[in-house]
C-alpha cells in the first residue's frame, strides 16, 4: 500500500453500539430459553413433573443464559475486530518518517509503502538495523544519547545506506549484501530476533563514535519480511504478534498529531519536534491528543487499528 503526504486521514471512535449488542444478547438468551423449554417438554416424563419442574426450568434458564452470553461475547469480540463502515475525516498527513536504525536519525520521505513489518521505500525499511553490544543485546538512546547524532541516508534508488556522524568520516552500508550473511544472536527487550552482522568495519565505526573505543558495539540487520516475535506487552489485549514489526519495541507503525506536540511545547522551556517521539505518520488538523481515542484509522485505502499508546 503506497502513501504520500497529500493523503487525508479518517478515524472512527466506535463501530457497533452497546444497545445493538445488548439487543442481540437478549434475543439469544430468549431464543435459547425457548429451545430449552421445548426440549424439556419433550423429554420430561409426566409423573416426574411435580418434583423436577423447578430444577429443570432453573437449569434451562441457566444454560440458556450462559449460552446466550457466550454467543454475545463472541459476537462482541468479532465486532471489535472488524473495521468500521463509516468514517469521519479528521486531518491530513503532514510528514512521513522512516527510521532505518533504532535510536538513530530519521529519514523524511514524501511517499512510502506500508508492509506488515512497517514502512519501506526500496531497501529503506523501518527499524531494520540496531546497535548492539558484542553479546547481541541492543542499546538505545536512553542510555547512549550519541546514537541520535548518527544520521542515515539512502541513494536515489533506495538501495545503499550511508552513515554520517559529527567528527566521523561517512561510511557506506551495502544493504543488499546483508540478506545473505550468516545469522547472529541478537535480542530486543530480552526477546531473540533474527539478525545478521553488518561488518567489522561498521562495528569499529560505531564503537569509535559512541564509546570512543575500537570495540564494544556492533550493527546488526533484520533480513526478514515478516514479524517473528511474540507479544511482549501482554496487558494490551489488542496487540498481536502480527503487530511486532521488525526490530521495533512494540508495533510496526506509530502516529502522532502536530497539535499534541504543540500542546506539549507550551509547557516546556525547550521545545521539541515530533521526531522526539519517533512517529512514522505526523497528522495535521485534529486537536491535541485526539489520536489517543481513535480506535481505527484509515489512510488512503489502508486501515489501521489503534492497539496501544506509545510509551514515549
From TrEMBL:
PROSITE patterns: MOSC
MF GO annotations: catalytic activity; molybdenum ion binding; pyridoxal phosphate binding
Superkingdom in the source lineage: Eukaryota
InterPro entries, per database record: MoCF_Sase_C, MOCOS_middle, Pyrv_Knase-like_insert_dom_sf
Annotated MOSC domain residues: 217-312
Record organism: Culex pipiens (House mosquito)
SUPFAM superfamilies xref list: MOSC N-terminal domain-like (SSF141673), PK beta-barrel domain-like (SSF50800)
Cited PANTHER family: MITOCHONDRIAL AMIDOXIME REDUCING COMPONENT 1, MOLYBDOPTERIN COFACTOR SULFURASE MOSC
Protein name (database record): Mitochondrial amidoxime-reducing component 1
Amino acid at each position: 500500500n503506497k502513501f504520500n503526504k497529500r493523503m487525508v486521514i479518517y478515524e472512527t471512535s466506535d463501530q457497533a453500539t452497546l444497545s445493538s449488542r445488548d439487543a442481540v444478547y437478549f434475543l439469544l438468551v430468549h431464543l435459547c430459553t425457548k429451545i430449552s423449554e421445548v426440549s424439556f417438554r419433550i423429554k420430561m416424563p409426566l409423573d416426574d413433573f411435580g418434583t423436577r419442574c423447578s430444577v429443570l426450568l432453573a437449569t434451562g434458564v441457566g444454560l440458556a443464559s450462559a449460552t446466550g452470553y457466550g454467543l454475545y461475547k463472541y459476537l462482541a469480540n468479532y465486532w471489535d475486530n472488524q473495521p468500521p463502515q463509516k468514517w469521519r475525516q479528521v486531518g491530513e498527513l503532514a510528514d512521513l518518517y522512516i527510521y532505518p536504525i533504532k535510536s538513530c536519525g530519521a529519514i523524511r520521505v514524501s511517499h512510502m509503502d506500508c508492509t506488515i513489518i512497517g514502512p519501506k521505500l526500496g531497501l529503506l525499511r523501518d527499524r531494520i538495523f540496531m546497535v548492539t553490544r558484542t553479546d547481541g543485546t541492543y542499546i538505545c538512546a536512553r542510555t547512549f544519547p550519541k546514537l541520535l547524532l548518527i544520521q542515515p541516508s539512502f541513494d536515489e534508488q533506495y538501495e545503499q545506506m550511508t552513515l554520517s556522524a559529527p567528527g566521523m568520516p561517512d561510511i557506506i552500508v551495502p544493504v543488499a549484501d546483508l540478506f545473505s550473511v550468516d545469522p547472529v544472536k541478537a535480542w530486543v527487550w530480552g526477546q531473540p530476533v533474527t539478525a545478521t552482522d553488518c561488518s567489522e568495519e561498521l562495528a569499529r565505526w560505531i564503537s569509535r563514535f559512541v564509546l570512543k573505543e575500537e570495540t564494544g558495539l556492533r550493527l546488526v540487520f533484520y533480513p526478514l519480511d515478516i514479524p517473528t516475535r511474540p507479544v511482549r506487552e501482554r496487558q494490551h489485549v489488542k496487540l498481536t504478534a502480527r503487530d511486532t514489526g521488525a526490530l521495533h519495541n512494540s508495533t510496526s507503525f506509530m502516529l502522532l498529531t502536530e497539535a499534541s506536540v504543540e500542546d506539549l511545547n507550551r509547557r516546556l522551556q525547550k521545545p521539541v519536534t515530533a521526531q522526539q517521539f519517533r512517529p512514522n505518520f505526523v497528522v495535521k488538523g485534529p486537536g491535541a491528543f485526539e489520536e489517543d481515542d481513535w480506535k481505527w484509522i484509515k489512510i488512503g485505502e489502508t486501515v489501521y487499528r489503534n492497539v496501544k499508546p506509545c510509551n514515549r
